[in-house]
From TrEMBL:
Pfam families: 2OG-FeII_Oxy (PF03171). The lineage of its organism: Eukaryota, Viridiplantae, Streptophyta, Embryophyta, Tracheophyta. Residues 169-269 form the Fe2OG dioxygenase domain. The keyword Oxidoreductase applies. This is 2-oxoglutarate-dependent dioxygenase DAO. It comes from Paspalum notatum var. saurae.
Length: 323
């Protein structure tokens, strides 16, 4: 992809109504989505449904004040020892300057209210605004994620699985802070990785830092804009589609003296990931064995998993193609 991989594929969703699949520009956008996700594994969505005003309120009125809380308050974002990556992340070796909080099922009002109650036990007028803003933005992002997931099912000719996959999927809303290094040189705040989940939708504020790796190894810096969201394929969807979609490596690097913030919605399979029979044929032999998603995530963060660049292939790959 050499010289053409200077920016992500950009797809205009302004003519797509997520609640009315197949109408408007849906078919044309679906073709662009499939091309982008099979070749690059991600794209930059022009998505004015998440209004710039709501995006600004999300970061300035909700996310920044959240990270200004004392560390003890943020550590209350805990879902138990068996779910260490569902809540607060901070002070992690190798992730200097990175801090993150998350809401399980953050697209629903109840979990957002519960989260706000943990962060601000005494309540206050600002908590209602926090809940309305975070839930409103998360719902808009979710509508895009679900539309893209449906387009993938349609594009592969397996739309009949959409409802079942949706029913077996949950969503994690993660808000992150990447502290400014106060230096001209770029500093890595989140190391190179592939996402483990189905789809990730990244909402950036004003400070750039997300870098996607093209198949030829070139790094592409994603420029934030007030109307764009970045959609990224994770290894769970790569596995489910029998390797038809590409799960790209990406990282976060920052420079300068302005702290970076992001809000990311992850769609995550509840249990087993298994390739549908329709996606296995002579041209596309089975690439991945059925596997429990949580077990795969545990493998990725284990010492053994750390030895492998392609963790999905190492964990459940079918090695029968003379590789």
């Amino acid at each position: 992809m050499g010289g053409e991989a200077k920016q992500l594929p950009r797809i205009d969703f302004s003519g797509v109504v997520p609640s009315k699949p197949g109408t408007g520009t849906w078919p044309a956008v679906r073709a662009q989505v499939m091309d982008a996700l099979t070749t690059f594994g991600c794209f930059d969505a022009h998505y004015p449904a998440l209004a710039p005003e709501l995006r600004a309120e999300l970061f300035d009125g909700a996310v920044r004040p959240l990270f200004a809380l004392p560390a003890d308050a943020k550590r209350r974002n805990d879902y138990g020892a068996d779910k260490p990556f569902h809540g607060y992340l901070g002070d992690i070796p190798g992730f200097d300057g990175y801090e993150s909080l998350a809401i399980v099922e953050g697209t629903e009002p109840g979990p957002v209210r519960d989260f706000a109650g943990l962060m601000w036990p005494d309540g206050g007028d600002h908590t209602g605004l926090f809940c309305d803003t975070v839930h409103g933005a998360a719902r808009r992002i979710f509508e895009l994620e679900e539309a893209v997931r449906r387009m993938v099912m349609e594009g592969l000719g397996v739309a009949k699985y959409h409802d079942a996959l949706s029913a077996s999927t949950w969503h994690l809303l993660r808000m992150s802070e990447y502290k400014a290094p106060n230096a001209v040189e770029k500093t890595v705040r989140y190391m190179t990785h592939q996402d483990t989940n189905l789809l990730s939708v990244v909402c950036q504020h004003e400070v750039e830092g997300l870098e996607m790796q093209a198949r030829d190894g070139e790094w592409v810096l994603v420029k934030p804009s007030p109307t764009s969201l970045v959609v990224i394929v994770g290894n769970a969807l790569r596995a489910w589609t029998n390797d038809r979609l590409h799960a790209p490596f990406h990282r976060i690097t920052v420079a300068g003296n302005v702290t970076r913030y992001s809000a990311i919605l992850f769609s995550v399979p509840h249990d087993k990931v298994e390739v549908p029979d329709e996606l296995v044929d002579d041209e596309h032999p089975l690439r991945f064995r059925p596997h429990d998603h949580n077990d795969f995530v545990c493998f990725c963060v284990s010492e053994e998993g750390g030895r492998h660049e392609d963790k999905l292939m190492a964990y459940c790959g079918v090695h029968d193609r003379n590789e």
